[in-house]
Amino acid sequence: MAVRNTQGTSTTYGSTVVPITTQQQRYDQGAVYFVKSTRKLKFGLFPIDLPPELRAKLERNTGALIDIVAEDSPAFAANVLPGDVLIELNGTIVLSAKHAGELMQAATPKEGKCMLKLIRNGTERSIELRLNES
After folding, report:
1. Is residue 42's pLDDT more than 70?
2. Distances (CA, A) of 86 to 20, 59, 124
3. Number of domains in the chain
4. What residues contact 61, with CB distance under 8 A and at least 6 apart?
5. Which end of the chain is more exposed for a tag (fewer CB within 10 A), N or C?
6. Does 19 map to a domain?
7. Can you list the pairs that 122-127 forms with residues at least 24 positions away whose Cβ atoms lie under 8 Å?
8. Start-end of H helices in 73-127
């Protein structure tokens, strides 16, 4: 938030100068609003690209860090946690967060199920998700 202070100078009436001192504080403000959606999420997880320190720790360039898991979503029900690293979706290697989003968008699971391969605490895990219809 930025604060700007301004000061007035003076004005004239005829030949007399009358000083006017004013001080104003103006604030630049922003707001964030959260809205509850009734739309069911297909997966309910939101990935981001792997940060450099995690790439170095895991010794890999591919994958996507799961940043958010929405409550009452298929990912939540399957015990996917924020901080897990998504490395495969239905047998396809995940290259980045953008690629993970494209794979999730295009997913047409058999019998409403989708297989995720994750890294959690340095251990690979396979998790089966029951997807919501979209």
Report:
1. yes
2. 64, 14, 10
3. 1
4. 50, 55
5. N
6. no
7. 122/58, 124/87, 127/78, 127/79, 127/80
8. 74-77, 97-106
**CATH number of the domain encompassing residue 74:** 2.30.42.10
The type of residue at 10 is S
Look up the domain containing 113 and give its range.
Answer: 45-130
The total number of residues shown for the chain amounts to 134
Do 2 and 27 meet the contact criterion of CB atoms below 8 Å apart? yes
Please check whether residue 41 is in contact with residue 63, taking contact to mean a CB–CB distance below 8 angstroms.
Answer: no
Tens of pLDDT, residues 94-128: 999 999 999 988 887 667 788 999 999 989 999 99
Whether residue 112 is contained in a domain is answered as yes
Instruction: Please name the amino acid found at residue 64.
Output: A
